Amino acid sequence: MRHHKHRGEGRHHRGPGRRHRGHGRPPHGPRRPKHNVPVNILETETGFEARVFCIGFTKENVKINIVDDMLYISGTRTPVDEYPDFLLQEYPIKSFERWFQLSEKVDQQAVTAAFEDGVLVITAPKVAGAVRPEREITIE
C-alpha cells in the first residue's frame, strides 16, 4: 500500500485511524446509541440462548417481536426520579433497542422468553431437522 501525500496548504497526514474534520465522530463526543444493552448469545445442541442484560427494566417494559427472520428486542420505561448528570453511563435509563438475524435453524414458533434478575433470557429451539443427535458407532 502506498502512502498518499497531500498537496496544498494546511493539509497533512493525520496518522492511522484518524479522519479529517467532518467525518466520523461528532465534535461534541460520541452519541449514546439506543442499543446499548449487552447481549450474550450461546448455541447449544438443541437451540440458541440470548441473555440480554437490561438491568432496571421489568417484563412490562420490554417488547420482543419476530418479523420475517429478524428478532427485535426493545425496552422503554419512564424514569421515576430525576437522574443526575452522570460522569459515565454504561446502561440505559430510558430505552434500548437490539435486533438480530435469526438462523434458518430456529423454530420461530417455539421461541420463549423469561426474566431472571434483570436478565432477559430468550430461548430459540432449533427445528427438528437442524438438531443432530449424537450416536455411538460400534466397531465390527
TrEMBL record:
Domain of life of the source: Bacteria
Q: Does the keyword tRNA-binding apply?
A: no
Nuclease among keywords: no
Q: List the residue ranges of the region (Disordered).
A: 1-36
PROSITE patterns per the UniProt record, alphabetical: SHSP
One of its Pfam families is HSP20
Ranges of compositional bias, category Basic residues: 1-35
| Ranges for domain SHSP | 30-140
Assigned keywords, A-Z: Stress response
Give the protein family. Belongs to the small heat shock protein (HSP20) family.
The protein's name in its UniProt record: Heat shock protein Hsp20
